[in-house]
Every structure is written in structure tokens, then in C-alpha cells.
Design goal:
about 725 residues, mainly alpha, Serine Threonine Protein Phosphatase 5, Tetratricopeptide repeat, 4-stranded antiparallel sheet, two-stranded antiparallel sheet, about 5% strand, elongated, DNA-binding, TPR-like_helical_dom_sf, PPR_rpt, Pentatricopeptide repeat-containing protein, E_motif
DNA sequence: AGAATATATG
């Protein structure tokens, strides 16, 4: 029987009473038994019961007990309850550092870093000197807030307080510099330590892991072994995560196996890493296998393992199993919800993701911990809609996110920027640029690439290039965005020049680079250059052409009127042509009025189980233009029987920071009749600049490629004329 | 005291 408590009726139903009077509370044995009980509190309800029992005897004001209560509430995510316990302490009770440490810890572990620092300041004002437990917490809060200056200040503060050689404090400082991405500083601190514990080594390995440096992590790992130190399960886990973060999935799994053969205990954390690798590898079967392993090994007790399991099941459909795991979790936390939402989003089920998001906002009413959406939740739904082409919805959610006072991070910004690029929302894009600079994300590669892409697609080449020039550590995506932007606007020469520069800079082009450069050639009619590049791609860069590359080539040749060569490619390509390839051919036939090939191509498209309505509509329009109304109707019926519905083509104009979406014929309804006047002016302008206008209807313009935008100097609007 | 799961641009 535990001293001080009487359990009723079984030890697993820890409903208990404090039987001793408050004077015994300071008794060490009492505290031990209290701790033993404390360890068994597994649910929030049990914590509440414990609290009310303590309140009955006013023992909740005893600093030791209060500190433990704070910790238990924090464990279940009820920070406000933890705070209540803290606030209930009478002033004289606050003279216990333990209490301050526990409330600061509660705040730090739940991401309330500013609050933690405020509490620390308050504590200092009362004259407390921090100990070896408070300082690491404060350092952690600063490093999570991420400001370099703040981190420097806290480093100085630690030195001033005399913790220069304090093991825990220096360990935390090493971790802090790692999180800032300043590995040289971390290394220097680490090298200067007189005494290093396993924790110090582990901090270094995980710092490299955090910075996606698997080589650095492996180096420290080996160094540790060569010094005769035994890497423990934490070291191994960090090593695993360093490889997982670099996308080295096979290596991660290899290390996981080696960990077992070396007799190192497989930690729950390591299992979570492996599950995340399964999620990224689309290896649902392995996920299932590991699920068995999880159940057998008792890892199910760990929430984060279950959360990882949601990802492993949910990333690649069907979502049933993931949802089952989710529903099974008793104390769902933020990550559980985010894993569910992002699984839906990644599977392309953006409406379901949004539904889960809304449900999350209402969470907490069922006795579970209330969870509010954070940056990641918002980013996940936004990118879900963005990925499905629902740009408008994505932008609307982004606005809502700002109203909800959730600060966007580089990931959010990059997703929203890609929407801006798609819907040509240049002004919003500029706004985001400003936001990024103000929030010190100017150097972020994700944001930088998003900006390049956005500016280029919106036609602001100067600004796009400026961002490109100033970006540090530009990567393949930066180059691809630049080339793709030029290509899209028909500036083939610029695209080619950029491609050459890229090669000279020692960058290795990938298949996406070639899609960009080949389509740039076809938009600009650079037939010879395109052909050369296609050869180069295969011979020199050893990149196997995919359907997209073939579609580009068919488009390139067909557009130039080389219909024979284009058809040859379609007939001889080693992979099955898809709707894009046939569509490119069809379009060329239309341009050059080659009715004989049209028939052949048309029948191919009709037999294809294509989900692309564009080709059907193109075909139908060709027949209609030829006066073959029966054939035209036949194609439309065929599209309808396949369950295809044409989403009307849309155009955008951005006037005074508002994006107007419209499709042919509805301008009068929107009160934008004057747009027609502008369009007519543009059409005349295009004719005078020798751009070919394919067909011109009374209320609807269909311009042929090259897609080109023209800026009207006289008005403040930029018009993008889409085909 | 240290490890872990959720968002990522072309």
C-alpha cells in the first residue's frame, strides 16, 4: 500500500483520498509516494481528480505538490489549468525556484516561448538566481523563437550567471546554435567543453540532423565510437533522423536494422522516424508490417508513434486505416490532427482535409484536450487546395489565417506564392515578398524560389531576376523557375541563355529543367534548338524522356508546321502517348488545317480513357469551325458519357489589389464591360505587332500561342490574355 | 538535461 494514499477500488482506478493531514506533506516518504502516484496518472480526468483532492486539503498550495500538478497538466496539454495552479500559490509560496522552473517548463514544452521568457523575467525581478534547470529552459525558449540576437543575449546571460562550464547549460547552448543553423558556433562550443556527457555528443548528432547534414551526423557518430564511447539509443535515433531528413530512406532503414543487431534498444522515437520514412516511400505494406512491430513492442503507448502511424497509412490512400488509428487515440494532440489533415491533403482530398480542420477548431468539447490549428494545420489545408488547383480557396484560407493571428512561416509563404504564380496575383505576391523580408525570411531558399517563380510567371522578369541574383545557395529549383518563367512568356532566347549559364555554373539539369526548356523552345518556335536539346538530354545528361518531354517535342514540331515529324514521334515513341501528346498533335493539325491527321488523332483521343476535357473540346470546336455540326455534337456527347465536365477557361485581371476572375461572356454581369474595350485595343495592338490572332468572335477572343501579355500603359490594369 | 511524429517551392 502506498504511503499516504488509499486506492479505491483497484490500483488501475486511481481514485484516491489523501488520508494524512497537511503537516505530513513535507515528509519525504509522502512525496515519494505522491510521485509514484503521479506517474500513474494517464488521463486528464485522473489529473483533474488529483487536483481536486489536493484542493480539499489546500495541499495544492504546497510548492512541491503544485509543481507536480503543473507538470501533470502540461503533460496533457492543459496549460491554462497549469497556470491556474501556479496563480493560486500565495506570494510567500513563490519563493521556490522549483515552482518557477515547472511553470516555465510547461510553457516551453507547449511552444509558449514568449510567455516562458516573461515568466523568467518576472522571476528574476523577484530576485531569484537561475539554476542549472532554469537556464536550459530559457535557452530553449530563445532558440525556438529563433532570433539570432536574442540567442546571443541569452548566451551572454548564461556566461554572466556563471554557467560557462555547466554541462547542461552548455549542452543546451550547443543545441541552440544547431537550431540557428550555425554549426560552426555549435562545433566551437562543443570542442571547448572540458567535460562532455553522452548528451553532449547526442546534441551534436541531432544538431547535424536538424540541419539535414547526414554526413556531419555520421562523422560525429564515428568520432564518438573511436573515442571508445558507446552510442546509445538517442544517438542512433538522431542518426536515423539525419538520414531520413535527407531523403536517404534506404540508409535509414539499414541503420534501423543495424541498431537492432548491435543490441541497442529500439526507442519509440526511432520507430517514429522509420514510420515517417515509410510514409515518404509510399510503402504502405511496410507500414503495416511495422504496425505489427509497434503493437508487439508496446510502442502504442507513445502518442507520437501513433501520430507517425497516421502519416504512414494516410499519405497514400486509402485513408480508412489512418482514420481508424486517429479515432483510436484517446488524447489527440496537435500533431495527431495535423497528421490527419495533411494525409487528406496529400491524397488530394482537400475538402476532407478542410472538414477535419474545421472539426479540429471545435475540439475539446468531448473531454479531450482542446487543440487549436497552428501554422502547420493552416499550411496543410492551404497547400491541399493549392495542389488541387483551387487557388481562390487557398488564398481565402490564407486571409483567414492572418485574421486568426497565426503567423505564416516559409512553408506557408512558398505554398501561397505558388498560388499567386498560378492565378497571376502579382500584388499579393509583392505583399508576401514584403512580409518575408520583414520576417527575416529573405534568405530562405523556399521563399526565394517561390518568389522567382511568382515574379516570372506574372511577367515581372526584372524583379524575378533580381530575387534570383540575390538568393544565397540557389538550387536547381531556382534555375528551373527562371527558365520556366521565360519559356511560358515566349522568351525562348532568354530561356536558352539561362540554361547555358546554369550548365556553366556547374548545375546538373533534371527532367523538369528539360520540360521547361523544351516548352520554351516550342513557345518561341526555336525548332532546331529544341531538337538539339532533346538529343543532349538523352546522350549527354542520360535522362530518359518521359511523356511530358515527348509532348513538348510534338508541340515544338507541330507548331512549326512539321506535322510529318510530329506524327512520327507519336508513332515511334517507346512509351504510350497520353492526352497531352495527342492534344499537342491535334492543336497543330488545327493550326495548319490538316484534316486527314485530325481524323486519325481524333479517333485516338476518343479511344483514350482520358480525363482531360480540353482535347475533347478542341476537337469539337475544330469540327464546329468546319461546319461539321454532327461530328462536333458526337464528340461532346462522348465526353459527357465519360462523365467529363468542361470547367470553363478563366482569365484574371488584378485591379487595385483585387483579382477579378471571369470567363467568356460574363463580364457584363460583373460590371466590367470596359474590359471588352481594352481587349479590342489589345487585339489591334497585337495585329500591329504581327501576332497572329487565330479567331475572333464578337464577344469572345481566342488568341493563339504564343501566350503573350501586353501591358496597357494608359490604364493601371495589367491584362493577361489567356487562350 | 538529450531523441520523435505534422506543413515545402520548379
Amino acid at each position: 500500500m502506498l504511503n499516504g494514499f488509499r486506492f479505491l477500488p483497484s490500483p488501475f482506478q486511481p481514485i484516491f483520498l489523501i488520508t494524512r493531514s497537511i503537516s505530513h506533506v513535507h515528509d519525504d516518504r509522502f512525496l515519494d509516494s505522491f510521485d509514484a502516484f503521479f506517474q500513474r496518472c494517464f488521463t486528464f480526468q485522473q489529473a483533474r481528480q488529483l487536483h481536486s483532492q489536493l484542493v480539499l486539503t489546500t495541499a495544492h498550495r504546497v510548492p512541491f505538490l503544485a509543481a507536480r500538478l503543473i507538470a501533470i497538466y502540461a503533460r496533457f496539454g492543459f496549460l491554462s489549468d497549469a497556470r491556474k495552479v501556479f496563480d493560486a500559490i500565495p506570494t510567500e509560496g513563490l519563493h521556490h525556484l522549483l515552482l518557477w522552473n515547472s511553470i516555465i517548463r510547461a510553457n516551453v514544452s507547449h511552444g509558449y516561448h514568449e510567455d516562458a521568457l516573461e515568466l523568467y523575467a518576472e522571476m528574476r525581478k523577484l530576485g531569484f538566481l537561475p539554476d542549472g534547470f532554469s537556464l536550459p529552459l530559457v535557452i530553449r525558449a530563445c532558440s525556438s523563437l529563433g532570433g539570432v540576437d536574442l540567442c546571443r543575449i541569452v548566451h551572454c546571460h548564461a556566461l554572466q550567471m556563471g554557467f560557462r562550464d555547466h554541462l547542461h547549460v552548455v549542452n543546451e547552448l550547443v543545441g541552440m546554435y544547431g537550431k540557428l543553423g550555425r554549426m560552426e558556433d555549435a562545433r566551437q562550443l562543443f570542442d571547448g567543453m572540458f567535460v562532455r556527457s553522452v548528451v553532449s555528443w547526442n546534441t551534436m548528432v541531432s544538431a547535424y540532423a536538424f540541419n539535414c547534414d547526414s554526413l556531419g551526423a555520421s562523422r560525429v557518430f564515428k568520432q564518438m565510437e573511436s573515442k571508445g564511447l558507446q552510442p546509445n539509443s538517442v544517438t542512433w535515433t538522431s542518426l536515423l533522423s539525419s538520414h531520413a531528413r535527407c531523403g536517404l530512406y534506404d540508409e535509414t532503414l539499414e541503420f534501423f536494422k543495424r541498431m537492432k543487431t548491435r543490441g541497442v534498444e529500439t526507442s519509440a522515437e526511432a520507430v517514429a522516424v522509420v514510420l515517417s520514412v515509410c510514409a515518404d516511400m509510399a510503402e504502405v505494406e511496410w507500414g503495416k508490417e511495422i504496425h505489427g512491430f509497434v503493437v508487439k513492442g508496446g510502442y502504442e503507448d507513445y502518442l507520437f508513434v501513433k501520430n507517425a502511424l497516421i502519416g504512414a497509412y494516410g499519405k497514400h490512400q486509402p485513408m480508412g486505416d489512418a482514420h481508424k488509428v486517429f479515432l483510436d487515440i484517446k488524447n489527440k494532440n496537435l500533431v495527431s490532427w495535423n497528421a490527419l489533415i495533411s494525409s487528406y491533403a496529400e491524397s488530394g482530398l482537400c475538402e476532407e482535409a478542410y472538414a477535419a480542420f474545421l472539426q479540429m477548431e471545435k475540439s475539446g468539447s468531448d473531454g479531450q484536450s482542446p487543440v487549436r490549428p497552428n501554422v502547420i494545420s493552416w499550411s496543410a489545408v492551404i497547400s491541399g487546395f493549392a495542389g488541387k488547383g483551387h487557388g481562390e480557396k487557398a488564398l481565402e484560407l490564407f486571409r483567414q489565417m492572418q485574421l486568426a493571428k497565426v503567423t505564416a512561416n516559409s512553408v506557408t509563404i512558398s505554398s501561397v506564392l505558388s498560388v499567386c504564380a498560378e492565378v497571376a496575383a502579382l500584388n499579393l505576391g509583392r505583399e508576401l515578398h514584403g512580409f518575408a523580408v520583414r520576417n527575416l525570411m529573405g534568405d530562405n531558399i523556399l521563399v526565394g524560389n517561390g518568389l522567382i517563380n511568382m515574379y516570372m510567371k506574372c511577367g515581372d522578369f526584372r524583379e524575378g531576376h533580381l530575387v534570383f541574383d540575390n538568393i544565397k545557395g540557389r538550387d536547381l529549383i531556382s534555375w528551373n523557375s527562371l527558365i520556366g518563367g521565360y519559356g511560358m512568356h515566349g522568351l525562348g532566347e532568354n530561356a536558352l541563355r539561362t540554361f547555358d549559364e546554369m550548365i556553366r555554373a556547374g548545375m546538373k539539369p533534371d527532367n523538369i529543367t528539360f520540360v521547361a526548356i523544351l516548352s520554351a523552345c516550342s513557345h518561341a518556335g526555336l525548332v532546331a534548338a529544341g531538337g538539339n536539346l532533346f538529343d543532349k538530354m538523352v546522350r549527354e545528361f542520360r535522362i530518359e524522356p518521359n511523356v511530358e518531354h515527348y509532348a513538348c517535342m510534338v508541340d515544338l514540331l507541330g507548331r512549326a508546321g512539321l506535322l510529318k515529324k510530329a506524327t512520327d514521334i507519336v508513332q515511334n515513341m517507346p512509351i504510350e502517348p497520353n492526352e497531352y501528346v495527342w492534344g499537342a498533335l491535334l492543336n497543330s493539325c488545327r493550326m495548319y488545317r490538316h484534316t486527314d491527321i485530325i481524323e486519325e488523332t481524333a479517333s485516338q483521343i476518343l479511344t483514350l480513357n482520358s480525363k482531360i476535357t480540353g482535347s475533347f473540346m478542341l476537337l469539337s470546336n475544330i469540327y464546329a469551325a468546319d461546319g461539321r455540326w454532327d461530328d462536333s455534337a458526337r464528340v461532346r456527347v462522348s465526353a459527357r458519357t465519360k462523365g467529363l465536365k468542361k470547367i470553363p477557361g478563366q482569365s484574371w485581371i488584378e485591379v487595385r489589389k483585387k483579382v477579378y476572375t471571369f470567363s467568356a461572356g460574363n463580364l457584363v454581369h460583373l460590371g466590367l464591360e470596359e474590359v471588352y474595350t481594352i481587349l479590342e485595343e489589345l487585339a489591334l495592338h497585337m495585329v500591329s505587332e504581327n501576332y497572329k490572332i487565330d479567331s475572333c468572335y464578337s464577344q469572345e477572343f481566342v488568341y493563339d500561342e504564343p501566350k503573350h501579355f501586353l501591358q496597357t500603359e494608359s490604364r493601371e490594369a495589367r491584362c493577361y490574355v489567356m487562350p
